Amino acid sequence: MKLTAGITLAFLAASTVASPTWPTWPPFGGKPKYHKGIPYAEGSKFMLDGKPFLFAGSNAYWLPFINNPSDVRNALTQAKHAGLKVMRTWAFNDKNATYIPGGLPMYGGEGAGESPIYFQSFKDGVATINYGPNGLQALDKVVKIAEETGIKLVMALTNNWADYGGMDVYTVNLGGKYHDDFFHSPKIVNAFKKYTAAVVSRYKDSPAIFAWELSNEPRCGADGTRNLPRSAGTNCSHVMVTDWIADMGKFIKGIDKKHMVTWGGEGEFYEEGNEDWAYAGADGGHFYNELALQEMDFGTFHLYPDWWDKTAEWANKWVADHGKAQVKLNKPVLFEEYGWLHPEDRLAFVNRTVPANQTRVAVIGEWQKIALQYKMSDAYWQLGVCGLSTGCNHNDGFTIYLNNTEESRPLIFQHAKDVAKVNSRL
Ligand SMILES: *[C@@H]1O[C@H](CO)[C@@H](O)[C@H](O)[C@H]1NC(C)=O
Ligand SMILES: *[C@@H]1O[C@H](CO)[C@@H](O)[C@H](O)[C@H]1NC(C)=O
Ligand SMILES: *[C@@H]1O[C@H](CO)[C@@H](O)[C@H](O)[C@H]1NC(C)=O
Ligand SMILES: *[C@@H]1O[C@H](CO)[C@@H](O)[C@H](O)[C@H]1NC(C)=O
Ligand SMILES: *[C@@H]1O[C@H](CO)[C@@H](O)[C@H](O)[C@H]1NC(C)=O
């Protein structure tokens, strides 16, 4: 999601951790069908150790930045006990070595500015990857705790939006002018590949990695205030973005042949003549072409009717239409982020109201039901846990807290059980 509100972070001193090593598989040599503990795709299914792996999951982008291993362990353990199997998090945090007030992109407002953790910094046109204790070693800890907890991680490698730096940090530092220069300027593409290689090679054997994700929500354009502008005309389209996805997918598979790769898009369709932007490829999406790429192991889509000015009925169709794509292309599609606001937040954020019976439990529950009918795995935005050293994690309006049983009983605990039941019959 495009983050709009900050999070409060607390920091503890770092402890050291060695990179994990894992046995190779299979023990008898030959080309492995799969690698022990590492999820893969087979037809329209996710698989794990030879069995179907349909899952309920969630998002916790903040795991690497709280810099507190016991809180990470606590959060992942609570998630696991709730029946959640996969968490999506941020494996990026890019910044300038020196923050220029008023400069672009406007990162830092989301709470990252307060965290000592960052993974890459730019100075005088040179990117430096931070391998230190306040750099990738902090991510090592999250991966290690995920291994120990048995939670799998979707690892996003950059951001379309300004939160935690993302694409525009590369672009402003490497001679680009437009947001979409990220997809084609050779210098920028190479810098992103360099960062990608550093992260992917670090965990290429880890069973904690569910998949590599090129970016959170890659688009031709971004935020009108906090990001660089999109280039004029039709230069950026689904052709440019799809080429970039294919090229990056190939690059990652050259480093890591075990883990899946996806692109992290919101699921925009491209239908000639369709007047609905979400079906017209307005921002460089072409769901069927992207999903069809041999370099992509599965597809993703997101859903925020409140931000998108869409109705609950529209949203139901959006879920079903992605389920149909999973069936048609016989490749898994992950319902990767979704949220529906409380009435008071909706009024405050977007000044809208909806019928009173469209509660979070009713509307989100319906999406989950449809996703499950199509046998799609899902990950709601976002995990809400209490009992951390800082109390509960931040509520951005979409957070579903595990201890808010009115919501969590149907949408998390019962849903995870329903998903497990369907999985056991696959
Ligand atoms: C980052 O650095 C670039 C290059 O000096 C500059 O153009 C940009 O405004 C800076 N942005 C921030 C937020 O510091
Ligand atoms: C348009 O996109 C192509 C790559 O597809 C790129 O080479 C070219 O520089 C872009 N032009 C502008 C004005 O951004
Ligand atoms: C919210 O919308 C109502 C109309 O639906 C309007 O009268 C009001 O001015 C709006 N409030 C804000 C803060 O934009
Ligand atoms: C809300 O009520 C309307 C009509 O009374 C009904 O058509 C609709 O399905 C209900 N929506 C939910 C989410 O229950
Ligand atoms: C969840 O736990 C936190 C902290 O322990 C508490 O402040 C909050 O009221 C609880 N929420 C509910 C719905 O019980």
- CATH top-level class: Alpha Beta
CATH fold descriptor:
TIM Barrel
**pLDDT under 50 segments (min length 5)?**
4-27
| C-alpha Rg (nearest Å) | 20 Å
In the residues, how many domains can be counted? Answer: 1
Largest sheet: 6 strands, parallel
User: Total number of β-strand segments?
Assistant: 16
How much helix is in the residues?
25-40%
Structural class: alpha/beta
Q: CATH H level: which superfamily?
A: Glycosidases
The CATH architecture name reads Alpha-Beta Barrel
Spatial ordering of strands, largest sheet = 11-10-9-5-4-14
Oligomer: single chain
The total count of helices amounts to 11
Structure write-up:
33% of the residues lie in helices and 14% in strands. The chain is α/β, with parallel strands linked by helices. The longest helix has 20 residues. The chain has 11 helices and 16 strands. Strand 10, helix 5 and strand 11 form a beta-alpha-beta unit. The chain has one domain: Glycosidases (TIM Barrel, Alpha-Beta Barrel), CATH 3.20.20. Bound molecules: 2-acetamido-2-deoxy-beta-D-glucopyranose (5 copies). One 2-acetamido-2-deoxy-beta-D-glucopyranose binds next to loops.
How does the SSE layout of this entry go?
Elements: E1 40-42, E2 45-48, E3 51-52, E4 56-59, H1 69-81, E5 86-90, E6 94-96, E7 120-123, E8 126-129, H2 136-149, E9 152-156, H3 167-173, H4 186-202, E10 209-213, H5 238-255, E11 260-262, H6 287-292, E12 299-303, H7 305-308, H8 312-329, E13 333-338, H9 343-350, H10 360-373, E14 378-380, E15 383-384, E16 400-401, H11 405-424
Helix pairs in contact: 1-2, 4-5, 8-10, 10-11
Bound molecules: 2-acetamido-2-deoxy-beta-D-glucopyranose (5 copies).
